[in-house]
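Dear support,

Our group has been running a series of protein-ligand predictions, and this particular one with manganese (II) ion is the one our PI (initials K.S.) wants archived with full inputs and outputs. We had some confusion internally about which version of the output was final, so please treat the block below as the authoritative record. The input we submitted was:
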Amino acid sequence: METFLKTISALRGSKVLFLCHDQADSDALGAAFALAQWIGGVVGVPREPAIHTRRLIEATGMDPVKTPDPEAYDAVVVVDAADASQLEPAVPKRFYLIDHHPDNQLVSHAAAALYDPVSSTCQLVFRLLKRAGDHPGREAALALAAGILTDTIHFHKGDAESFRAFGELLEIGGISYEDVKRLYLDDQRRDREVILRAALGSRWVKLGDYNILLAEIRTNIPTFVARALLDLGADMSVVAYEGPEGLEVRTYIREEMASACSLDAVDLMRAVPGVNSGQVWGYRQFAAFRRRDTMPGVLDHMIETLKSRLVTPRG
Ligand SMILES: [Mn+2]
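Confirmed final output from the archive:
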């Protein structure tokens, strides 16, 4: 931590790019923006930020550079990314890293990294700022708080530090919980409709006592929808989005089912025919798969792979 803080602080004065993963969410943008405010530099996204970040971008006045050339900067700090495929077509040759994703494939390639598999990248950035004795301003505090809210799925989950950091950020930034929630309002109305459509149109597969819901959606919010289907009562959800950005698949497996059936969401996703393991990230109960081109029948393949791997639970 101390060494990394020194390394990052030493970048002040040079031309720095804070690079998010593609389809950057509030956690990536929030982290990059707060760092850019602190060290100086620009926020970059490989192609486009995620739609749900529109209000955050407006509220903070951040102006992310799309498809930056990493070679045009003295230094690149990658935030909130777990795999090089998430940085295409702006993959830097040399970079620093701040991230929280379990099973990060970039850490070993980073010149230096602050890596800790906690709830969000924004709380790691806040940790750095606090250690440096620097207080984020209102906009940076709002951005960091938004990142934490997104990555904890509005506190559906979250470690102690994420709750504590969120509270401190409200206080330091002089912002209210409502200020942060307001960044998501439009979004929630639209998302709720996508979630309802997905739930009502989903394919329901029963394997033993377990309920599995599979859905295809046309709005790029597969993680939210997969999570919502789990909250609705599914033991496992698989949601596929296909659009101009490519294919995005997300799966959640409830802890009870993962233990009883010895399932690992990432292993399962990687075992699906046609899936390249480098395009999959996540952890035991959650896996994400992204690729640029379509993959017909991906949900069928997923359920077939699940059936072939399912260990009949005892008792
Ligand atoms: Mn994140």
